[in-house]
Design brief:
This protein is mostly beta strands. The chain is built from four helices and 24 strands. It is elongated, with a radius of gyration of 26 Å.
Length: 454
Amino acid sequence: MKRYRLFSGLLTFLLAACTNAYPGLEYTETNGNQEQEYVTPITVALKPQDLFSTITTGAASRGTGSFHEETMDMKATHSLFHVFAFRSARYTQGGLTSDASLAATMSSDGDHGDCLIDGGTTLFGHSARLENDSTGMMYFVDNSDTTKTVNLYYSKKYQEVPYHFFAYYLDDFQPTTATYHRSSSEIYYDLKVDGSQDIMVGMAPDLTFDVLADRYKSLNLSDEVKSKIVNIGGYSAYSGRYDVYPIFDLKHVLTKLKFYAVPGDSTADEVTIRKVSVTGPNQGRLVVAASDVSQVGLQAVDSTADLVLRESSADGVTPGAVAGSDQVYQVHWADSMSNISLADRASTRIGESIMLLPGAKYTLHLEYNVKKTDASGPLPKDYNELIRQDFSIEAPHDAISYDAASKSYIFKAGYEYVVKFAVYGLKQIRVAVDAGAWKESDETIDINDEDYTK
């Protein structure tokens, strides 16, 4: 058995130490007198993923595969995120006695009694990008000019009104008026994916004493300030003045399949893998903001499609070609492998990955050429026969893949699963599937002959 270690997961955001000053506090004069009025800027951040310690400027990246260590430089800095924020509780002293309406907009709600941040009449929340400093800090950009930095502020009228903050990443999915839905209680998309997108959604956690102790310990807040922040019940102008700002916990809503090939015997050299695809669920209802925050996330609808494996993008802009289309995927046998188990033989990575909705079972399709060196009759020598082979692959029966809600084993969202092909020239390719973790630390891959399905 061979162990492969995946470095993934989310770093706890490290706040720079500072005092209980009022950062970014601005003052204005009212009616010509010296009365001071608080204007508190809104600051937001993402929890950076732990292996992505360096984020450098790269080309814009859309529909070019998943966020991981090799693609972060190209994807993160120029990827466009979207943010919503709405009042999270009733506020009887301020006259906000009903639940907030998520249909309210920044332009229609000038005092931000319901809506603090949205994209106005666009089909998105307010646009934001990651700072190029590896901290996870974000800056807001104009929805019509994504290179222009804009400043957003908490309500001056409702200084102690709490808000929920939501964020999401749609990759290159382009919503329309038919697929974007916004009501008083939720905002969602009819999502359809093609296998190359990495879709993420989440929110900043409620401000509890535990959250303050975990994420904002370095601020050295007084007990009085912490109690007031928690009593308010959410992010507010008051918490913002103490540098307690929303840090989004974004989660991958799709599962990820990675593909590798290993030589099965000395005939493996006769095989060239030409195409890999998976038939599985590709559509769902992506809730990006809701009055009931437990509804935020992706729920599948009854739809499947054949999703094709592609190469990683070479420039972070253009989606990669179909994996295998350039006929480069061959594995090569060496006699020294005869005494090495399949699990310990060197493997060849194929393409980037396929990301699709969670499910218990998918259909895997392989297309490959087998070189026929002894062809007879009308077939020319060195004829390459194109073979298509289908496999039913099921989620591994392990703790990682067990879904308590359905009491079944599924390919889970946020996890990656390694699919390995044992390549033989004189008999059919065989396949094994093992669970790895996109967001956990350890993966064990154990491949034996009996693990494969014909």
